[in-house]
Design goal:
Blueprint (H helix, E strand, L loop, with lengths): L3 E3 L8 H13 L2 H5 L9 E7 L2 E10 L3 E6 L4 E5 L3 H4 E3 L9 H12 L3 E5 L3 E6 L5 H19 L11 E6 L2 H10 L9 E4 L4 E5 L4 H19 L11 H10 L3 H4 L9 H4 L2 H10 L6 H12 L10 H18 L1 H12 L9 H12 L3 H14 L2
Parallel strand pairs: 1-10, 8-9, 9-11
Antiparallel strand pairs: 2-3, 2-6, 3-4, 4-5, 7-8, 10-11
Helix pairs in contact: 5-7, 7-8, 8-13, 11-13, 12-13, 12-16, 13-14
Length: 378
C-alpha cells in the first residue's frame, strides 16, 4: 500500500530550516528549554500573533519574506517579513513545550464534542466518540515496537518532548476536509504524517484492515522523527525514511513481533516483495544495481509516478536486508544520517561516497548481495 508522508513546508523555507525546531527540542538540554534559549544565532523566545491571539514560541530562522516560529504545541508558523514589527516581538517569558494536559485540552477545543481525546504513554489520539481503545492501542503498540526494534539493533532512540498526536476522522471525506483546513494538498491516501503539525491523520470510515498498513507506515515516520532516529535538521535520503516506513507496515512488526524466533515471512512487507518479483528481474542483479544507485544518489524516483511504487519497494528491500543481515550497518546508516551537519544540502556524489563507506562495499556489490538475499526469501 503506497503511503504519503508529507513534509508540509512554508514556501520560503527548505526542509532543513523547518526541521531545526524539532531537532532543537529533541537535543537541547532541559535547562536550555526551561530557561529560554537566548543564543543570538539560535532559536529564541518571542511572542507572535496568530489567529488574532498572541502566543509564545521559538523564533527559529528568517528568510527575506518570512520568519519561522515554533509554538509551544510543536506547530510551525510563519510571520510575513512586512509584518514582523506588529506581529512578532521579543519576550522574556521562558519557552516551555506544552504539557500533555495542555495539549489534550487544546485538542478537545479544536475538535469539539463529537471527538474523544485519549491519552496513552506516548500519544494523544483524537477519535470519534465511542471508538474505544482500538486506535490508541494501535499507535501506542506501534511506537513501542518501533523503539524495541531499533534498540535491539543498536540504534539510539531518544524520548521526544511533545506527546505525539494522531487524529482519526470518521470517514475519508472528513479526513480530506481536515487536510484542506490544514492546507495539505493530497489525494487518494488512507493517511499521512505531516511534520508542520507533527500529526498522523487518518480515518475510520472503512475496514481497519484496509488502511492499517498505511497507518502503521505513517506511525513509524512519526516515531522516527520524534525519537531522533531521523533528524529534522538535515537532508535524510528518502530510501532510508521510506524504507523504515515500509518495514513497519506488517502487523507482526508493529505489534511487537521482532525477535529472530519468529518467521521471517511475518516480518516481510508482502506487497513490496510481490512488486519486486513482478517488476524486476531478480534472477540477475542488473535491475537492482540501477535501482540501488538511483536511490542512493537522489530522491527523484519518489517524485515520479511511473517509478514511485518501485522506489518504495526497493527502499523496503534495502532497509529490511540491513535490519535482518547487518545490524551494524543498519544502525550506522541511521546514526550517520541523523547526525550530519544541519542546513547542508546532501549532494549526489557525497551520498554515494557515504553509502559505500558505511556499507564497506560499493553499490554494485551491495545490489548483488541484496538480489541474492531477496531470492532466498520465502
Amino acid at each position: 500500500m503506497l503511503s504519503t508522508s508529507l513534509r508540509v513546508l512554508p514556501d520560503a523555507f527548505g526542509a532543513l530550516a523547518i526541521a531545526a525546531a524539532f531537532a532543537f527540542l529533541l537535543t537541547a538540554p532541559d535547562s536550555a528549554i526551561a530557561n529560554g534559549y537566548q543564543s543570538p544565532t539560535g532559536p529564541r523566545p518571542v511572542e507572535f500573533l496568530i489567529n488574532s491571539q498572541w502566543q509564545t514560541g521559538l523564533h527559529l530562522v528568517d528568510s527575506s519574506t518570512e520568519s519561522l516560529i515554533m509554538a509551544k504545541d510543536g506547530w510551525l508558523h510563519t510571520v510575513d517579513a512586512n509584518k514582523r514589527t506588529e506581529n512578532m516581538r521579543p519576550t522574556s517569558e521562558r519557552y516551555q513545550p506544552a504539557s500533555a494536559m495542555q495539549m489534550r485540552n487544546q485538542l478537545r477545543a479544536e475538535f469539539g464534542r463529537d471527538f474523544d481525546v485519549v491519552a496513552t504513554q506516548n500519544f494523544l489520539v483524537v477519535q470519534p466518540r465511542g471508538r474505544g481503545n482500538r486506535w490508541p492501542d494501535m499507535f501506542e503498540n506501534s511506537h513501542r515496537a518501533f523503539v524495541e526494534f531499533m534498540t535491539k539493533r543498536g540504534v539510539r532512540v531518544r524520548k521526544g518532548r511533545f506527546p505525539m498526536v494522531a487524529v482519526v476522522l470518521p470517514d475519508a471525506r472528513a479526513m480530506y476536509a481536515e487536510l484542506d483546513r490544514l492546507k495539505i494538498d493530497v489525494s487518494r491516501v488512507a493517511g499521512i504524517y505531516a511534520n508542520r503539525c507533527n500529526r498522523v491523520l487518518t480515518h475510520d470510515g472503512g475496514r481497519l484492515s484496509d488502511i492499517a498498513a498505511t497507518v502503521r507506515h505513517e506511525a513509524a515516520h512519526q516515531s522516527a522523527f520524534n525519537s531522533g532516529v531521523h533528524s529534522r535538521v538535515n537532508d535524510t535520503p528518502s530510501w532510508i525514511t521510506e524504507g523504515i516506513g515500509q518495514m513497519f507496515e506488517p502487523e507482526s512488526l508493529a505489534g511487537g513481533i521482532v525477535g529472530s524466533t519468529h518467521r521471517i515471512a511475518d516480518r516481510m512487507n508482502q506487497e513490496s516483495i510481490r512488486h519486486l518479483r513482478n517488476t524486476l528481474s531478480l534472477n540477475r542483479s542488473d535491475d537492482m544495481v540501477r535501482w540501488v544507485e538511483r536511490l542512493v544518489d537522489g530522491d527523484d524516483a519518489f517524485r515520479d509516478q511511473s517509478s514511485v511504487h518501485t522506489a518504495y519497494a526497493v527502499s523496503w528491500a534495502m532497509m529490511f536486508y540491513l535490519a535482518e543481515r547487518d545490524h551494524t550497518a543498519f544502525a550506522d546508516v541511521l546514526h550517520f544520517t541523523a547526525t550530519r551537519p544541519p542546513f547542508e544540502n546532501y549532494r549526489r556524489g557525497q551520498r554515494r561516497i557515504d553509502f559505500e563507506r558505511i556499507m564497506g562495499i560499493d553499490t554494485v556489490t551491495f545490489a548483488n548481495r541484496l538480489t541474492r538475499y531477496l531470492n532466498e526469501l520465502p
